[in-house]
């Protein structure tokens, strides 16, 4: 049996996309998903394609609740840790190991799963160096039967820190998620630029006002210099306002005076959002999996990023992240973002051609990764 865990729930459509893409890639064997948000997974119909059990994932990064339940009620906190379900366990939170605090706690889960004789795989991961150099996290990484890196920057770090023998690289599983066609809003009667803005890039940026001003300049350029319309596309809708894309999209709505030039895409499952993004002529995205939806649909894309995952994926697709990712952690002026957009936007036909030609080669790397997994008896 294949068991997926460290899944936070489908209200983060990136988490949902990883599961949907993974299920498309893997053999149709018996599969179970432990979820931190059953309600969200039911809302977005993920339960229709995989059996889902409850896991109180929300406590993984709450140290006080973690310590209390770990000591007194481990079965309540983590049903998956009771050892009832045997199989190969895939830790599916793609960027969980970007954050040392969360990585250490997931490491405890990894240890407990292995205690019951199960094998573990760290699936489609990106890892920041500050996590790898943490001795506790490094020891945890050594325990996995396999680490599947989704981009070369993480693979290089694993090699640098003597974990190369544990690692194989293949694209993020969300690249394999098949889009589901939906009816499009009327703004798509003209070419549309899709825009995603998340609270996280404002939190991670050196100057959040520069990021917002950069997005404002991008919107003004589209409205003033082209006759294209705009689709504002939320990709994470957590109840917490600090992690809900609808909150930041309100800022962009306030910039646009003509209601006929834009739309806010209604919430829908990840594979439907991917279809909407695939119909855009260009995409500006902050959420990694919104940009993966664009890349995999061969839509030219500018990424407003803040971590190794955005830089690594772009480098693997284009040979460099420069010009394709604006690292908001070091953004000094709004023009760094808007100028990068204009430059890439003017080259969009060339970039689309590159993606069309290279995407089959890029996705062919799934074969290498899946064969390694199969050879190790992890499927």
Provide the residue-averaged pLDDT: 92
**Beta fraction of the residues?**
5-15%
Q: What name is given to the CATH topology of the largest domain?
A: Rossmann fold
Q: Span from first to last CA?
A: 8 Å
What summary fits the major beta sheet? 7 strands, parallel
- Give the overall shape: globular
Which architecture of the largest domain per CATH? 3-Layer(aba) Sandwich
Structural class: alpha/beta
In helices, the fraction of residues equals 40-55%
Q: Helical element count? A: 17
From the alpha carbons, calculate the radius of gyration and give it in angstroms: 20 Å
Strand order of the largest sheet: 3-2-1-4-5-6-7
Textual characterization of the structure:
The protein is of the alpha/beta class. The protein has 17 helices and 13 strands. It has two domains: 2-176 and 363-375, Rossmann fold (3-Layer(aba) Sandwich), CATH 3.40.50; 186-346, Glycogen Phosphorylase B (Rossmann fold). It has helices at 13-25, 38-43, 63-72, 74-77, 100-115, 129-132, 135-143, 152-160, 199-204, 208-225, 245-253, 270-278, 288-296, 308-318, 334-346, 348-363, 365-375; strands at 2-7, 31-35, 51-54, 88-91, 119-125, 146-149, 167-169, 192-195, 229-232, 262-264, 282-285, 301-305, 325-327. The strands form two sheets. The chain has a seven-stranded parallel beta sheet with strand order 3-2-1-4-5-6-7, with helices on both faces. A six-stranded parallel beta sheet has the order 10-9-8-11-12-13, sandwiched between helices. The longest helix is centred in the middle third of the chain and has 18 residues, at 208-225. 47% of the residues are buried. The mean pLDDT is 92.
């Amino acid at each position: 049996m294949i068991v997926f865990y460290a899944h936070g729930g489908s209200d983060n459509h990136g988490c949902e996309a990883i599961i949907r893409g993974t299920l498309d890639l893997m053999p149709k064997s018996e599969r179970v998903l432990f979820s931190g948000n059953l309600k969200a997974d039911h809302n977005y119909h993920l339960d229709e394609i995989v059996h889902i059990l409850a896991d109180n994932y929300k406590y993984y990064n709450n140290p006080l609740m973690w310590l209390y339940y770990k000591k007194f009620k481990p079965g309540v906190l983590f049903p998956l840790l009771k050892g009832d379900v045997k199989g190969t366990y895939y830790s599916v939170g793609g960027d969980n190991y970007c954050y040392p605090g969360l990585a250490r706690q997931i490491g405890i889960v990894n240890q407990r799963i292995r205690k019951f004789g199960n094998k573990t795989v760290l699936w489609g991961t990106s890892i920041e160096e500050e996590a790898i150099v943490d001795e506790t996290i490094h020891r945890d990484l050594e325990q996995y039967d396999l680490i599947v890196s989704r981009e070369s920057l993480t693979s290089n770090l694993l090699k640098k820190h003597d974990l190369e023998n544990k690692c194989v690289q293949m694209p993020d599983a969300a690249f394999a998620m098949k889009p589901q066609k939906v009816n499009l809003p009327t703004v798509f009667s003209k070419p549309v630029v899709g825009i995603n803005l998340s609270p996280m890039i404002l939190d991670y940026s050196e100057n959040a006002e520069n990021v917002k001003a950069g997005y404002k300049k991008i919107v003004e350029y589209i409205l003033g210099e082209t006759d294209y319309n705009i689709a504002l596309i939320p990709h994470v809708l957590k109840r917490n306002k600090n992690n809900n894309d609808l909150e930041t999209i309100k800022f962009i709505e306030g910039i646009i005076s003509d209601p006929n030039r834009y739309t806010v895409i209604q919430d829908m499952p990840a594979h439907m959002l991917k279809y909407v993004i695939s119909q855009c002529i260009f995409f500006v995205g902050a959420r990694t999996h919104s940009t993966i939806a664009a890349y995999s649909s061969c839509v030219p894309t500018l990424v407003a990023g803040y971590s190794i995952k955005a830089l690594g994926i772009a480098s693997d697709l284009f040979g460099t992240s420069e010009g394709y990712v604006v690292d908001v952690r070091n953004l000094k002026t709004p023009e760094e973002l808007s100028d990068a957009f204009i430059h890439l936007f003017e080259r969009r036909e060339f970039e689309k051609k590159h993606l069309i030609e290279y995407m089959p080669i890029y996705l062919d790397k799934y074969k290498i990764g899946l064969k390694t997994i199969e050879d190790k008896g992890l499927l």
